[in-house]
Amino acid sequence: MANALTICRIALSIALLVPAVFSPAFLMAYALAGVTDMLDGYVARKTRTEGELGAMLDSIADLILAIICLARVLPAIAVPTWLWIWVGAIFLVKAANVISGLVVEKRLVMPHTTANKVAGLVAFLVPFAIPLFGIAAPAIIACAIATFAAVQEGHFIRTGAEQTGSGAWRKEASSSGRTRRSRRL
Fold first, then answer.
1. Is residue 42 domain-shared with residue 105, that is, in the same domain?
2. Are 69 and 91 contained in the same domain?
3. Looking at residue 74, what DSSP letter applies?
4. Do residues 184 and 162 lie in contact, with contact meaning Cβ atoms separated by under 8 Å?
5. Are residues 86 and 154 in the same domain?
6. Pick from 48-57, 62-71, 91-100, 162-171: least confident
7. Domain residues for 8?
8. Residues whose CB falls within 8 Å of the CB of residue 87, separated by 6 or more in sequence, listed in order
9. Where does residue 175 rank: exposed (0-12), middle (13-18), buried (19+ CB within 10 A)?
10. Contact (CB, 8 A) for 44 and 36
C-alpha cells in the first residue's frame, strides 16, 4: 500500500507536465502528490511494511517531483540572482552530505530528519505562495529552513548521530566500537 502511494506520486509528478503552471489543475495535482508523500511513510510505519525498497522508491519519487516542478515553475517566474546562488549553496551542502554518507557509512545516506521534513513541507508550499506573494518572501523562508536542515544533516552524518522516535538525537556504537548510524527506513 505504501509503495502504491509512492508510485502514485510519480504518476502525479508526470501529470504535472500537462496543465499550465499555477493553474487549478496544476496546483491540485501538485497538492495530491504532496499528500501521497506525507502518507506513504505513515502507512509503511503503521502497516510495518517499511523497507529499503520503499525508502529508496520514496527518495526517487521525491526527486522526480522536485525535478518536474522545477522544470515547470522556474521558467514561469523571474528568479533573482541571489536566489540562484543560495539554492546552489544548499545543493552543494546536500551533495557534500551524500559524499560524506558514502565515505562514513559506505552506503547512500539520506536522513529523514525533522528539519529536512520541515524544509520539505515549506518548500512544498512555495508554489502555492508565489501567486500571492511573489518569489522573494517564500524563497527566503524556504531557503533559510533548507540551509539549516542541510547543515544539520551533514553534522549528523559526520558525527554518526541518529534520530530517536521522540525527535531527539543520539550516537550509537557498533560492536567494533565505531560510531554508526542505524538504518532509518
1. no
2. no
3. G
4. yes
5. yes
6. 162-171
7. 1-76
8. 143
9. exposed
10. no
